[in-house]
Design brief:
Elements (H helix, E strand, L loop, with lengths): L2 H15 L8 H12 L5 H11 L9 H18 L9 E2 L2 E2 L1 H5 L1 H20 L4 H15 L4 H8 L9 H24 L3 H29 L7 H6 L1 H20 L6 H15 L2
Antiparallel strand pairs: 1-2
Helix pairs in contact: 1-3, 1-4, 2-6, 3-4, 3-9, 3-13, 4-6, 4-9, 7-9, 8-9, 9-10, 10-12, 10-13, 12-13
Amino acid sequence: MHLSDLVGLVERELEQVLPAATEPPATLHAAMRQAILGPGKRLRGALVLAAAGLISSDLRPALPAAVALELVHGYSLVHDDLPAMDDAATRRGHPSLHRAFGQATAILAGDALLTLAFEVLGRAAPPERALRCVTELARAAGSRGMVGGQQHDTEPGPDRPDPRVIDRLKTGRLFMAAARCGGILAGADERRLAALETQAEHLGAAYQLLDDIADQAEDLPGGRAAPLAGLGEEAARVLARHHLEEVRAVLEGLGPRAGLLVQIWQSVSDRECSP
């Protein structure tokens, strides 16, 4: 199985889980589908499945968590784009959701995606593993994780944390939750869960640094160049390489069943090699 297969599994499941655009309230459901089903890397969902693949060849039990991570990530982008946050005009080459559907619908679509994520995750089996994953994702997405990072992002001034602290909250915590949930649903022991969490933390840090470099190079409106303002591009690349080496070291210790995780590491490493 290849990374593209994981992405395909996640996308097909998202298509099934989201309400039809014709189901009332149709405008809300159409907005939810536009927010999620557009082009995307599906890296968080793929990471869930790759982590499960370390333990089991049957990835189906981890699909609810893969979908949930993508729904939470999608909701966060909808809210990030709002005028009160980044005020972004576009998302992935298309009008941002509040430009296409209005601010009220965009807010409600984000709310609905977040709650749908926990509905889907709650249906995972066995129930005790599903409950652990609900807790993992709630912690990662809440005020001590992604939402806390978003709050810090709105607070300029001397009290603003280091950009790398913000990135760990906004990006790293979801990567860590993705890896842990995949492992939990596949039955990983605590030693392997710890290894999955460590490699995911470094992977998320590298991914965000490289994403910021790409945004700066493209001069994207609303691009998050703050980490580079403190580091400079070359220092950011050096730090990204360090994190990727940390991921590689962990994966080498996990043995041949880590092949899917290695593919994800390689896909992020390839970004580092891009000009």
